[in-house]
Records
---
Amino acid sequence: MIPVTTLKDKNVALFGLGGSGLATAQALAAGGARVVAWDDNPDSVAKAEAARIATADLRQIDWSAVSAFVLSPGVPLTHPKPHWSVDLARAAGVEIIGDVELFVRERRAYAPDCPFIAITGTNGKSTTTALIAHILKASGRDTQLGGNIGTAVLTLDPLKAGRFFVVECSSYQIDLAPTIDPTAGILLNLTPDHLDRHGTMQHYADVKERLVAGSDTAIVAVDDTYTTLIADRVERSGTKVVRVSRRQPVIDGVYAEGARIFLALDGASRLFTDLSDIQTLRGGHNAQNAAAAIAACLAVGVDEDEIRAGLSSFPGLKHRMQPVGRKGSVVFVNDSKATNADAAAPALSSYDRIYWIAGGLPKEGGISTLSGYFPKIAKAYLIGEAAPAFAATLGDRVAYEISGTLERAVLHAAADAEQDATGPVAVLLSPACASFDQYKNFEVRGDAFVGHVAALPGVTMLIEANG
């Protein structure tokens, strides 16, 4: 845990007692703050009380005595309308912050030289975060990984000199971190997302910009209009900007040409590495992720050979284009995290011949946007509630069967793939759907896929079957 001592002896109100909220309350209490916490869910309040966190309905407290209000990132700050607790804090003139802001204040106060890499973007941030942490750990550096990737930042080991922190940041977390100041900040891309919470695309982009604007080195992927403008604007403000791209050369930065990654300085470029043989970094989107990771690791002093070694040994992000088994020329790939069509596109673009397992609880729009990848699909195996609708979209353009269950889909896809004489093929779970019709979440679905693959005769597993 990172005790939050910068609010020692201060009265702090906190709303939102899910996993990160409860962890934040405990970190504040451990640092000596007087915390009073609340949640709209009585079960969450009960859990906090069991953890010896003081609770009270924030509508009944004296806000004039409160020094700071800590809001969990899942609670609306601005749109569609501010949560009632936000209105109370604003009316009292109390600052509203989140757990990432508490972390950066602790870092400034007690370990300002502690390397801090923060990553954001609409897509790819989890893979990039995991890749950077892996490179650092593989090089022998003391590394902590957390944030939006699943481990609350204040539950990480305490700040100290020489300890590296790699933190994935959602737009919600950035919105509650007004003084975020990473050693290296990464912005990967911007496409419309979470507009129900940000109101407009411009506001969403403005929030994301704050992360790189406060960085010592801003690493910005300039493959869309919003990020290109942000890179220019941040550079004009005096911040060092390293541009990365998967689509075009850059004058100063890191760029990809297919699977080859180049370093550029003053317009002169040289080959840094080739990702062709790294199965966990297939596809143009991963070339962008790798380029950003390379730039960040260089910015915090990692040696080039250490970076190349870390790239080569990267095991991949669990449930995201994760090769899990192999039998002859067939590779089995777990992309359970692809819970909508846009998220499934990278995996479909990364393999030339695919036995595709898709379906689950359908999202709006279905899979019609994936039609450009249909020629790559040898056959589709449709599961869950979405199966009839997906079958209608595939029509006579793609051979398919309605398998119903994931287990049956794996069995049939594996049998068909083994008979394919065209060369390397992938049995790909990339559902383009939520999991909730058949599984608790996409992680449970992905683990089930791995288990079904492990049960196939003759398959060499590339990961542990239990995840």
Note: The chain has a mean pLDDT of 94.
---
Amino acid sequence: MKTTIITVFLSITATFLACTNREKPMVKSEKQDTIAIAKVVDSTTSNVSDNVEPGEVSFPLSGKNAKSFVPKNYAIDLEAEGDLNHDGRKDKVLVLIKKTDTIDKRASLILLRQIDNSYVLDKKSFSAVEPKYRSDVYQIYDTENVGIDKFGVLTFQMYGTGPSGNLFSSYKYINNELVLVNINSFSMGAGGQTELDLDVLKGIYKETNTNTMKEDMPSETITKKYKIDKVLFENSHLGDLVIKAFDVNGVK
């Protein structure tokens, strides 16, 4: 079972196994790998964020609306609205995809609404959400959702059939930091299925394994204490966290 679990979840951060009957994206431009992405400055502001890795686009620090933060050659792939920081104003979450290279990293932006209804860019991440497509141009997950609940919890929900499985993650503002609070994953392998629920704040690891080879499909759940360091939205590499959690605590 352990071998099956690790094999399945390595696909989260590396190359995913073949998926069939999935939509293919636009063809990647051959020139895109050699062309540096210019900094994009919104017409409503002269300030752009400075914390940019090589090859990544930068974004305005403020804008009059959500579209102000969408650079040229990018499109809004996922979005949600809700009060993230409990100030009574509805904020925005955008997940952006590069139209000319849909296997590239997606950018997730946290836009906090101001009193005048403009927005400021508070957080950004190139790791919170995986690329939409694999290198063989097949879509990784069948369905993707992002939402903000009434408690201000930001949740990403990725649903996939077969080896890609499901991957959910939740974030919450704590002391002005957007931190990872929970990871939930579900996957199916040869003869079994595994669900992981990791409460990051409480430090609780819960793993449920189900034997699908037997008619009554018996399941076994283990719960352990598993405390990890604080994970910020900006650098939350979910695949790595899941694999390490299984490696430390998983059924041998």
Note: The first helix runs from residue 2 to 13.
